[in-house]
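As the work plan foresaw, our protein records have gained a structure token line. A representative record is set out beneath this paragraph:
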Amino acid sequence: MRKPVDLDAQIKALQEKAKSLKDRQRTQLGELVLATGADTLPLEAIAGVLLAAVEQAREKPEAVARWTERGAAFFRGDRKQGTRGKRNGAGDPAPGPSGDGAPAPAGNSPAP
């Protein structure tokens, strides 16, 4: 005899997982905005750029391939293809306390 399946529990678990994935996606998008230096732009400009990109992707799918190459270069750290936000004048974010380029945690800035 088969054990009864608790569908309600499975649905609840899937809903929680979906919420967790959505939260993670939002966090990663925010981190990407910071890493690229786009946080220096007004929100309206960021929204406009994203809307234009979606529109262009529909009209010219080959553009997505070029953007993908440039994005991959950014994550590899290539200077030619990817561009980083100019935070410290050298093209990379200013190193955090660990020296790895990661920002310092909020409220833990070193004393002057």
Observations:
- Residues 81-112 have pLDDT under 50 and may be disordered.
- The CA atoms of residues 30 and 39 lie 9 Å apart.
- The chain has three helices and no strands.
